[in-house]
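Bumping with the actual sequence this time:
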Amino acid sequence: MYGSERHVLLRHYLEAGLSKTAIAERLGLDRSTIHRWIRAGDLERDVDAEAVRYRPRPPRPSKLDPYVPLLQERLTEYPELTGVRLFAEVRAAGYAGGVSQLRALVRRLRPVPPIAELVRFETPPGHQAQVDFARFLLPWGVRYALLVVLSYSRLLWLRFVLRQDLRTLLTGLEAAFASFGGVPRELLFDQMKAVITRDGRLEGGRLVTNAEFLRFAHHWGFRPRACRPYRAQTKGKVERPIRYLRQSFLYGRRFAGDGDLQAQVEHWLATVANVRRHATTLERPVERFERDERPTLQPSPPDRTARWCSSRRSRHHGRGPRRSPRSRSSIARSGSTPSSRAARHESGPALPAGSAPGPAR
């Protein structure tokens, strides 16, 4: 390489008609060098436009150099040792430098833990559905999305609701079963309070499930299962649709209210979510469901066609409300009779003037 000044002078002398020998004498170069530059086309290059290349800087000695083998040995055996702990150890060994220099070296020496390979668990058609609630803040208040995903086909059902209680969960599951045309053999939940009363499996205990939900599961013929605490990745088939719902449906849309919200999400399910090509199965969820999963779902037997919540309400209503001795004494003190109390129970709670009962949710 040659400098830009020589490059300019060489071209100037050649354009002025000087011989190669005269140019070599003026520039202090050998004549063969000028011939070589001309043959290689170096005169046509723009030297100023080329990036400047620097040689690698030679390493400078450091106060930590004598302690590198010690640090490597400690980090190989205990890769999670902190910089403060290692600083104390090398100070005890004679290191006289600062902690910042040591932390920079530890970042380079610390072994990178291998990334654990995530094993994807797939289930046969009709075997499992995953259920979860997701919280969303809308302009008129908080709403929850109840999502049910069939694990094999990835067919998604969802409904926006006001709360996350057991009654909402049971009515939503009944609607999902009706939409699917059958019942999966098991339902997988996260640590949902409406389902799981207590989970002592981390301490060697057992899982305690809500008794009312167990009766509901027996009524419909599925087995409830719960993820272990802090293992929500085992329920990824419903966790990922929550992000998908937030990004593909809710973000950037406007809604007139709850009715419009539910109408739009049902249209989105039918035209986008369940007809897209799924990234994992490489198939459309609705096609995979109709071909493989719908025929394998458990049908609802004739004795299970009655809605659970309505049947439970009717049985409770037929018995009448339970009364404690305290309530009987309070009735006697107030002068009301069981017949008048039953009449008020039949008529239901009084509504404010000008209002009408809304649709059940």
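The tokens above came from a reply further down the thread. The first strand starts at residue 128 and ends at 138.
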